[in-house]
Amino acid sequence: MAFISSTVSFLLFISLSASSSLVSANFYDEFDITWGDGRGKVINPDLLTLSLDKSSGSGFESRNEYLFGKIDMQLKLVPGNSAGTVTAYYLSSKGSNWDEIDFEFLGNLSGDPYILHTNVFSQGKGNREQQFYLWFDPTADFHTYSILWNPQRIIFSVDGTPIREFKNAESTGVPFPKDQPMRIHSSLWNADDWATRGGLVKTDWSQAPFTASYRNFKADACVVASGKSSCGGSAASSAGNNQAWLSEELDNTKQERLRWVQKNYMIYNYCSDSKRFPQGFPPECNVA
Ligand SMILES: *[C@@H]1O[C@H](CO)[C@@H](O)[C@H](O)[C@H]1NC(C)=O
């Protein structure tokens, strides 16, 4: 009996340590407020707020560094007249050849639509913008913004609906983010020189402080510490792991949802901006 239970606990230990799943993570444990002199606050284990006023914005970052993952966060954006404000929520590595996966929410006058701006940087090169309107008011309630990042693709989703897929196009010579661990970052700042109607609408400081809220963070992800991935193997070969999301792709239903969003809500796509790329679109634009 003692033998059996120690075997069971040994197996349990193996399966727990091989698992990368973090369920209902605690903001106190997972994040550090990195700037803003008290304007960023962990209110309770499942609520964090950032604020912006005329003197400063604020920001936080994850303590963990991740190399691949399925990462969900619920955000409720600055309500009312949020013109000029930008809430950025992204993954980023360090150094001059950094990788980055971006959501940026560009505020607007009351009743006018936010823009959800997305970008993907690999090896320090971005210029891969896609922008969307949302099919709901992102300030009225919390909504889930997710990044699925595996060695084959990056999928941006909103409330489970994919809005963008960036495929690994290394076969065409385009680097893909797959070697550099990234932290989660978020910040709320003033960008009224460009954010709203291209900078035409300025921040109305009489509405300050502006506040964005975060809850329900979930990372089913490979955490890298001292060069080792929690998914096993070296940081660079986590793909050997059997986590389903590590090879997840869009099924037919999700592909249809993606087309629905792109048809009805996408307002800018660098891959169709022929004025910007007179010599031809970047190679990843042609990967099926
Ligand atoms: C703000 O509203 C205007 C008018 O509807 C729209 O053109 C613009 O795309 C909206 N969003 C931003 C961030 O400028």
From TrEMBL:
Database matches in Gene3D superfamilies: 2.60.120.200
Gene Ontology MF: a single term: hydrolase activity, hydrolyzing O-glycosyl compounds
EC number: 2.4.1.207
InterPro entries: Beta-glucanase-like (IPR000757), Beta-glucanase/XTH (IPR044791), ConA-like_dom_sf (IPR013320), GH16_AS (IPR008263), XET_C (IPR010713), XTH (IPR016455)
CDD domains: GH16_XET (cd02176)
Signal peptide: 1-25
Cited Pfam families: Glyco_hydro_16, XET_C
EC class name: transferase
Active site: E100 (nucleophile), E104 (proton donor)
BP GO annotations: cell wall organization; plant-type secondary cell wall biogenesis; xyloglucan metabolic process
Keyword list, A-Z: Apoplast, Cell wall, Cell wall biogenesis/degradation, Disulfide bond, Glycoprotein, Glycosidase, Glycosyltransferase, Hydrolase, Secreted, Signal, Transferase
PTM per Swiss-Prot/TrEMBL: Contains at least one intrachain disulfide bond essential for its enzymatic activity.
Compartments in which it is found: Secreted, Cell wall; Secreted, Extracellular space, Apoplast
SUPFAM superfamilies associated with the record: Concanavalin A-like lectins/glucanases
Cellular component, GO annotation: apoplast; plant-type cell wall
Membrane-crossing residue ranges in chain numbering: none
Start and end residues of each GH16 domain: 16-214
Main location (coarse class): secreted
Glycosites: N108
Function text: Catalyzes xyloglucan endohydrolysis (XEH) and/or endotransglycosylation (XET). Cleaves and religates xyloglucan polymers, an essential constituent of the primary cell wall, and thereby participates in cell wall construction of growing tissues.
Family: Belongs to the glycosyl hydrolase 16 family.
Name under which the protein is recorded: Xyloglucan endotransglucosylase/hydrolase
